[in-house]
Each structure stands twice: as C-alpha cells, then as structure tokens.
Design brief:
Length: 204
C-alpha cells in the first residue's frame, strides 16, 4: 500500500502514471513537475504510527503542539469538560486519528455556539466517556474530511480522516479524565497520549 492518505491514493497514482508517460513520450525529465509531485507526496503522506498499549488512553488526533488545557463548556454536548487545544503543524502529516476506541455517536459540520464551520465528531469510549474532536476550518485553505459514520466502531489511534493545513483542533474530554499532555508539548497523532480516562463502570 502506498504511504499516502487513502483519500488521495487514486489521484496520486494517476498523476504518477501521467508523469511517467510524459517522460517516455517526450524523453524529457520535467524536474519542475516532479518537484511538485514530491511536494504533493509530502502533503498527503501517511506513515504507520505505533499506538501505545494503554486502553484508557486518549491519543492525540492530529500532529501539532498543545496550546492549552482548560476546563470549559463543551458546545456540542453541553457539559463541563477538560479541553485540549492543539495547533496542527502546517507541514503535516495531516491525517486524523481516533483518540479512543469506541462507538461513533455524532458528526457535526458547524460549531453552533461560534457559528463557525468545522468538522467535529464524538466517540463514546468503552469506559463510557464521550470524547469530542473539533477541527476548526477558519480559512478557505483549510480542509477536513472523515470516513467514519455514527453507529460504527473505530479503534484507538486508528486513522479516520484528513485535515489540512494548520487547523486548530479541540479535544473535549470528560471532566474526570487525568491530564497527561502539557502546554507546549509536541503531540503526534495516533501515538502521543493527551490524557487517561477513568472508567465510569467502576464508580458509583
């Protein structure tokens, strides 16, 4: 499998075949076009991430840097939460990974509180804690998509979408979650731990 985002694999293969065909027909290596091809490959790259073997861990959904961790209101589920804000790296990778294993409960395309375009989804973990990921889309250059749907299960740290470029990402956690990642920490999607969930099954 090509190490590129699944949304772009067909398009990437087509471009590659066109460039190879151009070379065989003309005999001229177009370094400018191959340079653009390389930049496109860097933009859509998707390399395997080693998921930490901690079932209750909340994994970073994107590559970026943690800007803050605060207690605030979740505008999607109307609850008091612990919220991580992550500034996505401008040069990717741009893949979105599921922060927890569980069932997809909701998808949103707008933050009604801020009246801003976004892509957001809620996953109910096996510890019965709802985790909401919100990807803000504040610029026409920013894009986000996901292939998950309400009702299906998704694995912890598994790739579930694509977001670019330099998006602001919020992760809303149950207020009882134990914070691990700190402000200014680098967070890699599908690998680095933001927090640990407390199982509600073991509480009265």
């Amino acid at each position: 499998m090509l190490p590129v985002a699944k949304e772009f694999q067909g398009f990437f293969l087509l471009i590659t075949l066109i460039l190879i065909g151009f070379y065989f027909v003309t005999g001229l290596p177009n370094y400018y076009l191959w340079g653009l091809w390389l930049l496109f490959l860097l933009f859509i790259r998707d390399f395997r991430r080693e998921i930490p073997p901690i079932p209750q861990a909340v994994i970073s959904p994107v590559d970026g840097r943690i800007l803050e961790t605060i207690e605030t209101q979740d505008p999607f589920l109307n609850r008091l939460t612990t919220r991580y804000t992550i500034s996505q790296f401008v040069w990717g990778e741009f893949n979105v990974h599921s922060p927890v294993e569980g069932r997809v409960e909701h998808l949103w395309v707008q933050n009604t509180e801020k009246q801003k375009k976004c892509l957001a989804f809620c996953i109910r973990s096996d510890e019965e804690g709802d985790v909401v990921v919100e990807i803000e889309l504040n610029s026409p250059l920013q894009h986000a998509s996901t292939h998950i749907h309400p009702g299906e299960r998704v694995g912890q740290g598994k790739r579930c979408g694509f977001a670019a470029m330099g998006c602001m990402v919020h992760v809303y956690l149950p207020k009882t979650a134990k914070v691990v990642g700190q402000m200014n920490d680098k967070a890699l999607a599908g690998r680095d731990i933001l927090a640990n969930l407390i199982s509600l099954k073991n509480t009265d």
